[in-house]
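Sharing a chain and its predicted structure for anyone who wants a worked example. Both blocks are below, sequence first, tokens second.
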Amino acid sequence: MALGYALGPIMQLEQSQRHRWLLGLGAGVSVGFVLLRATNLYGDPAAWTSHDSVVSTVLSFINCEKYPPSLLYLMMTLGPMLMLLAVFERARGRVADSIVTIGRVPLLYYVVHLYLIHALAVLYARVTVGDSAWLFGGAPLRKPAGYGLPLAGLYVVWLLVVVSLYPVCRWFADLKQRRQEWWWSYL
């Protein structure tokens, strides 16, 4: 979030300057990630290790912790994101417009998606294992045997959540655009 505020002046630059800044910052952060991760000295609680296969070694290298907050995780995700922001800035069409709509209401999307995903998890637990009480306890969660989805199933759920929240995001983005009070820009 702090990076978003810091990028404000860059996002107000003329398009070609903004493009160069975003690509340069993204590349710098990505290179910094590779160099820092290669040393195993700082940035993540879990060190990477070399394995017999290249794929396993690469996966170990990029296996950074999100929680507790890890400098390397942030660098690994934000560097490419800055470069993608530069590349996709000129994107047009229905998909791009839909992504922009959701991006105009990030707080609403974040809060609502947490409740929707939890409700879906409760429903799925009741259907698959017959009990969802464990989803309402404190951490750490003790997931029952047989509960879970394969990766493809998670992608389907992710897509359904994004698509189902679009109408709410569209409504709220339109509401924000109609309102003139200064505080609406923070929602």
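Comments welcome. The two ends are 13 Å apart (CA to CA).
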